[in-house]
Amino acid sequence: PEDRRNEGLLLNKNIIENISLPSIYFTSRMGFLNRKWEWNAADTFVSKLHIKTPSLKTIVENLSGGNQQKVVIAKWLALNTKILLLDEPTRGIDVNAKAEIYELMNEFTRQGGSIIMVSSELPEILGICDRILVMREGEISIELDRSEANEQIIINYASIN
Q1: What global pTM score does this model have?
Q2: Would the N or C end of the chain have less CB density within 10 A of its end CB?
Q3: Per-residue confidence at 161, pLDDT binned at 50, 70, 90?
């Protein structure tokens, strides 16, 4: 979500609880949590996504913005989703964390996943997206392939003529 702190995380819970939350229905048995699965999933994605933390039991609020964003992504990857909807995925995070998020996105698509991304940052859109849908007043004004898109075209179609 665009506001990861209020809509994407349980800030007062630890990394394990945040990553496992969407998967609980599928991994619990007869109402009992599968703590081993939770621990293994969190450990796997903390390592895979290079989440910088002293412990899997670290409260998510104590992580940097970039690492919080990686926890949000990890919880959906742990669910084995094939489509990610990312709303402003790099807003408010530092340059290094942005690069890591972009690499995660590229790896996800290389493995057959699809991403629908909403972003107000034109360089991000032009650098990441294969197809770009430009919206104006709640409607699609043009669909562009990466090869035909540039900042000026996007601005023109996003602006009221």
Answers
A1: 0.85
A2: C
A3: low
